[in-house]
Amino acid sequence: MATGDHGPIAFTVHTKRHPLFLVMLLLVCVVLLVSCSGGNATASAPPTPTAPPTPTASPTPTPVVGVTHVTITILALFQPANIEVPVGTTVTWTNNGNIGHTVTFRNGMKDSGWINPGGGTFRYTLTSKGIFPYYCMYHPYMVGAVTVT
Predict the structure, then answer these.
(1) Residue 26 counted as domain residue
(2) What's residue 61's pLDDT?
(3) Cα separation of 55 and 109, whole Å?
(4) Please, which residues have CB within 8 angstroms of residue 118's CB and are 6 or more apart in sequence?
(5) Residue ranges of the chain with per-residue pLDDT less than 50
(6) CB–CB of 105/134 below 8 Å?
(7) 82: number of Cβ within 10 Å
(8) What's the pTM value of the predicted model, to 2 decimals?
(9) Within 10 Å of residue 118's Cβ, how many Cβ atoms?
(10) Is residue 59 part of a domain?
(11) 94: containing domain
(12) Is residue 111 part of a domain?
């Protein structure tokens, strides 16, 4: 054995190799080489890209008739999302959630602006017949519609 002194640290270098260690090292290398080989693997073609789904212009569920109050829930949903009211009805949206939302009509007729969380409201009187889809500008997955008869 050779010993070296390098300041406060002393170390010993072993010059004798252990045959069992070498055999184990060789065995590990062979196993890794065999497991990493590709074998009969074939390259496959990349998947064909598909177009992203297009959002629907308006929600499809049947509107709730006679309801004039829509709640914005803590789960970021309009509840009920689809309502039906007669011409001249004022609809109120109340934000019971914990973050701000908007009621933005897709046809551009009105945008509520920021509705404060914790009870902020927006009121709008619908003066013409039609189906008026709306959404939250900050959360576009939040959608609803007012059907005016």
Answers:
(1) no
(2) 74
(3) 20
(4) 95, 96, 98
(5) 41-43, 51-59
(6) yes
(7) 21
(8) 0.59
(9) 11
(10) no
(11) 66-148
(12) yes
